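Entry 14. Ran structure prediction on the chain below.
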Amino acid sequence: MYQPTAGGQDIGDVEGPEGVTFTPAFQIDGTLTFMPLRHGRAFFNGDIALKVEEVKGFVDAILAKDLEFQAFHQHFDEMNPQIWYVHWRGVGRALELAQAVRHTVDATSTPLPQTKPQNPTTPLDADRLARVLGGEAEVGEEGVVTVTVPRGGHVVIGGILASPQSNISTNVQFKPLGDDDSRAAVAPDFSMTAHEIGPVVSRMRHTDWDLGCLYNQETDEHPQLYFSHMLKTGDPYALAREVREGLDLTCTR
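Output, structure tokens:
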């Protein structure tokens, strides 16, 4: 599994709900995942953050390369400037598929190549957040911690049994709002089946989480998954426990 990120460095800072500044390290990014198949083939599933003027050209590039255009949506309202996200996927020989994906990204002003920061640090206790959520933590730029919590069960996309790491897990991002770990902006992106939506959203709204969106990000998917981005600021470990309460209402590993 190859899973680079595609940060929106060309977009810069975006003012969002609750006075939180969204950045390429926090929410203004995308993920490009490549899952190996047999005989040198691969399954690609990804998403990318776009400026409004980039969307049409990007979708045209997807269709020109015979890739699957899957979703077009926003994560949160009250964003200034407003950012759009597009999801797309494909199957083919690994190198040819990667070249096709690169062609689509080249239709935007997203800078490539991109690299992860070396030896990133954070005031947050990433291991503690991972333990609370039951996932794996990664530290990125600006001290942002991302915890990935895989789904359980099988998910088939376009006839392919997809790995949980194929952009279908729940990701939770923590952005420190100071020099210590007392306060953070927390943004989970819940991965849910239809019958999980009501219980999860009800639980999170009960503790006053800002509900951003509800959408499908894949087509021809069984079971069909729905995703919802949410936001809240406060003590990161207390908020992680609240997110875990939501996760307990889903099928997670």
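The chain has a mean pLDDT of 95. Will compare against last week's run tomorrow.
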